[in-house]
Amino acid sequence: MAMSMPHQICALSGTPLTAETGGEVPAKGNTTASAVWRTPLTNLRVSVQKTGADVDMLSPTPSPPLSPLKGGMRPDLSVACQALMEAPAETAAEREHRLGNSPEKGKGVPVFVMMPLDSVKMDHTVNRKKAMNASLQALKSAGVEGIMMDVWWGLVERDAPGEYNWGGYAELLEMAKKHGLKVQAVMSFHQCGGNVGDSCTIPLPRWVVEEMEKDPDLAYTDQWGRRNYEYVSLGCDTLPVLKGRSPVQCYSDFMRGFRDRFENLLGDTIMEIQVGMGPAGELRYPSYPEQDGTWKFPGIGAFQCYDKYMISSLKAAAEAFGKPEWGHTGPTDAGHYNNWPEDTNFFRKEGGGWDGEYGEFFLTWYSQMLLNHGERILQSAKAIFHDKGVKISVKIAGIHWHYGTRSHAPELTAGYYNTRFRDGYLPIAQMLARHGAIFNFTCVEMRDHEQPQDAQCAPEKLVRQVALATQEAQVPLAGENALPRYDDYAHEQILQASSLNIDDQSSDREMCAFTYLRMNPDLFHPDNWRRFVAFVKKMKEGKDAHRCQEQLEQEAEHFVHITQPLVQEAAVALMH
């Protein structure tokens, strides 16, 4: 083909894509290098049994090849391309702010701690207020920079459109301010419940659920008709399907309401707004839902493009390419949630549909829809919080299983067009850079050999690829641990990953922040707390620290001793 697929997509939408937009992904042949970190062996190995040994039944017509481009219009794909053209140029000051350049650059990584998911109760009050107060005091005394808190759409705007109840959040933010803690506020437009680590259930607002019950196609849908109600389908982002407003308008109004209510804390106590963009607050499709046992690790997941709004977009794309038959459905031979790549015709390494021209067409459309979604919301968030002294961040999922295969099937079903021959994270990083946003990534605590190698898990290699992509796009990288860990081995891995020692160009670069999952009674267990305090001190020292580790650990031991009563109070209070 004369043009790369992203350029064809923009050509179909009638919008030119210039070289400066950063929308083009590397051509085939760009491979992902191995991780450079070397770690000692350990016995922390996880075994896994392969689930779903059945090879998927082939459809009458497997994934077809793609015909040459035949022109046409794609109005539904014009939004992202137009955003690239209209976005105001970033000023030098904004760029310095985004990249975190300051006299303190290279002086360590600030640590934040995630609050419990149910920190604010359904009655709009702070949950376990006494425990929360003692816990925040303990965190501050340990040298923690701040906390991350979910601001749930399903709580604040629960009862009626445009009616916001910020009770509980106002009190929690004042508590953080009193203890001198900074806050990363997450605009959580997803349902709580059904994902890894979800300890409570907070549905979407009642009136949104009512609309989804009237029109089930507002929910993400797989090829077997299973609906997912964690997050409104991005296929209807700009349609007035929620009581006369579009989903993106609802998200924008919510963020504007938050800004207006807490404007006095923005840039002071509240220093970051993380914008939720999908299930678990991540920019992805709900391709691996744990609810009701639909998916189990390390299954490949399933494409989520079968609601009528997504199919309408796919149909328009297929017709524009001159192959209308491609618009009726997604790949029909991509297996089931718990298959492995080699179980399927679409994802298998030899002759798999993912590597053919049809696969390129479908995966480009599917991943571009996700990028368009991010463009829309970020454009709004940037305008709403402009000049308010806060940074904007977006969380990307760390999908490390089957990373060692050619197709990277779980990443593809989630919307990340990343394969052995294509960098799927650079376009995401470039999109975030255009809007001055931080790239927040999970699974930073994991090591390759801890994960099941028969599933070719490679979290270290994945983190390294993301670090390189963010370095090239000049976007700051922040990290999170995907699962709770309290051991020194995980802490050491986080320290190594956050130092971003990936090549000779990253000598003065570190992660801009790390958020620790999560505040709970286990964190305040004496042994866990001692290790955590030492970890925070090491993170604050940074990769150029000159003090010896023994000295830091001795200081941590002394600190743990003198703060023991406070930590015991927090631990006991959290258990009640």
Automatic annotation (TrEMBL):
The keyword Electron transport does not apply. GO terms for molecular function: beta-amylase activity. InterPro entries: GH, Glyco_hydro_14, Glyco_hydro_14_CS, Glyco_hydro_14B_pln. SUPFAM superfamilies: (Trans)glycosidases. GO terms for biological process: starch catabolic process. The keyword Ion transport does not apply. This is Beta-amylase. It comes from Nicotiana tabacum (Common tobacco). The gene is LOC107832261.
